[in-house]
Specification:
Radius of gyration: 18 Å
Number of strands: 20
Order of helices and strands: HEEEHEHEEHEHEEHEEEEEEEEEHHEE
Number of domains: 1
CATH class: Alpha Beta
Largest sheet: 9 strands, mixed
CATH architecture: 3-Layer(aba) Sandwich
CATH topology: Rossmann fold
Oligomer: single chain
Distance between the termini: 36 Å
Length: 396
Amino acid sequence: MRNLLALLASLTLAMSLTATAVGGIHSAHRVCDRPTAGQAACEAWLNDAVTSMSATPAATPSGYGPSDLRSAYNLTTSTSAGAGQTIAIVDAYDDPTAFADVNVYRAQYGIPALASCTPSTIRSSTTACFAKSDQSGGVRYPRANGGWAQEVSLDLDMASAICPQCNVLLVEAGSASLANLGTAVNTAVKLGANAVSNSYGGSESASEARSESTYYNHPGVAITASSGDGGYGVEFPAASRYVTAVGGTSLSKAGNSRGWSETAWSGAGSGCSGHITKPSWQTDSGCANRTVADVSAVADPNTGVAVYDSTSYQGRKGWLVFGGTSVASPIIGSIYALAGNASSLTYASSIYNHTGALYDVVGGSNGSCGGTYLCAAVSGYDGPTGLGTPNGTGAF
């Protein structure tokens, strides 16, 4: 049985938009309701301790910005890296101000604005541009949803922070059903995405082996998925062997040679899938099936990232600070696009073949699993952080 911490986390997830201190999340709340069967929830956590700020570039937002993230993960600042690559963001419902909001974020940090392009032309653009489509590739956008709009802004801002030269494609599913979100993933690939980030998850089910083949099996395209935000336990699509499952860390500045330190974030999902077989490149001995996660990045809302969103939701808009593995998934997806190697990769296997290009994360846990690596960050592979966090693009 999970310990009291994990039980409290699951109870909290049953209540929408409730402030909590579960899993080390202090004065923060999730922005999407807990999903029912066949549905998914976004994995974003809003830090309530940080007040909204003005939209003017003169403001200095709280939370980590692009230079912090690039420093923490040893990423290039080259003006050409990622040019011509497309990172797709898949979320549910419509964010009507997504394009304007992401360019406010970019202006704040001196990143050139994204140009406007269309879903049909984005794959051929060599100048960073933005396009938005519905789950079928058209422009009949679904109804708006404030919580998911904040998720969209978070995802677009992380893509901009990590790969400023990348094209950014937003594909909006008609609802938060796993079927509609999966359809949106297929559409993103058809429209030419090199990497697709999925910052959502739902409960595992007996049908997920069929679903992973239908929606997430895209050789030559890097598909990332958040591992979860309720602590120890496995979600889908992170459980799919065709995606890179992205766990979460707490990221802090440090006086070491790297300049940063990380431990496992207590809210990150991890564990042993109940339905998906183990891919050949995973060799951990404590789980006969697929183990989550593969890799990780910052996710703790207490060490969160700056995000701009103009949608007033629950009385909050403007400059906000977010955490959750919703932060980590687009960071890793954008690093795949920055590296530009997705067409030659076999799902997440490259990460396991290039562990020297990762920062091993040791310390911290996300629940109770008998004291094993499935819920505790140990040297080498573990569930909450996978093989570690990026040290450049070499593992991608």
